[in-house]
Specification:
Pfam families: adh_short (PF00106). This is Short chain dehydrogenase. InterPro entries: NAD(P)-bd_dom_sf, SDR_fam. By secondary structure, this protein is mainly alpha-helical. The chain has a single domain, classed as Rossmann fold, CATH 3.40.50.720. The chain is built from five helices and four strands; from the N terminus they run αββαβαβαα. The strands form two sheets. The chain has a two-stranded parallel ribbon. Helix 2 links the parallel strand 2 and strand 3.
């Protein structure tokens, strides 16, 4: 979900994700007359080996529910089949995004990243 708000202590990462989101949205519209479908999946926290390998992150304290990779992929493929430009996976992520202001999400992610971001990402 880093594409949807600034992430302190990881600004380059969230900026790159925002670029991918906006590029995908543009391509979705640019290529539709060629019958090429582009859909950008915003996965949120996903149960992957990379996330599970982190001993320093308590996943129970993650903002939002960690989804299985299979569920995220299924939602993404469904979004592509239904020609959606973007899709935020997980009902809990969609609810959180609707009810929480970006300023609060930015603060929450900033606190998490301050504790857990690799030192080379911090200023």
């Amino acid at each position: 979900m880093a594409a949807l708000q600034a992430v302190p202590h990881s600004g380059n990462y969230s900026g790159a994700k925002s670029y991918i989101l906006r590029m995908g949205e543009a391509l979705h519209h640019e290529l539709e007359d060629k019958n090429i479908h582009v859909s950008v999946l915003i996965p949120g926290p996903t149960d992957t080996p990379g996330l599970n390998a982190r001993n320093d992150i308590d996943l129970s304290k993650f903002p939002g529910k960690v989804m299985s990779a299979e569920d995220v992929v299924n939602e993404g493929l469904n979004a592509l089949v239904n020609d959606k430009a973007t899709h935020l996976a997980g009902i809990h992520n969609r609810i959180m995004k609707k009810i929480m202001p970006n300023s609060l999400l930015t603060k929450m992610m900033g606190s998490l990243m301050k504790k857990h971001a690799p030192k080379e990402l911090s200023i």
